[in-house]
Amino acid sequence: MIRRIQYIVYIILIFGVGEAMAQEESRIDVNQAVENPALVSAMDRVAREGSDEAKDELLKQLLQANYLAAMFTDGLKVSSDDRNQQTIEKGSTFGVLSAESAGKNYLVLFTDWKALGQYTDQKVSGWILPSRDVWSFALQGNTYDGVVINPAHNALPLERPMLEYLSHHASQLP
């Protein structure tokens, strides 16, 4: 079941600052499509062979990737100034695509737009998140029991203990 979780704009502002810093650190180019061929390959390899070497490579790629989260922006109130700079207004809300399975709620993430398009035909915007921010966001509070990456093809579910592991190791990266 696909779910839409609503958030108040202060979350966007908190993560917007963190995202801006993370974009600088991880060199996210928001004008270039998010693609993760090495992560997709590592996910496929673990599904095929399941070797320790394949799992190690998958962990490495999970920590290095940038992800797409699907956002519903119909609740955003945006204004523009003379320089065409946009500001999200107080009281705005946005939805983040999540999925429920066996009574658990998962943040749904994608490796690229193609994977997102295979999962939903709803009108969404992409929220680019470096791995460091993904683990932090998913672990904040008790909204999510985990994440699932590319749920339409070769889905990779990650429960909270794995997110904690990834969060710890992401904080140790330069």
UniProtKB/TrEMBL annotation:
It comes from the Bacteria. Pfam families: SseB. InterPro entries: SseB_N. Residues 40-164 form the SseB protein N-terminal domain. This is SseB protein N-terminal domain-containing protein. It comes from Rheinheimera aquimaris.
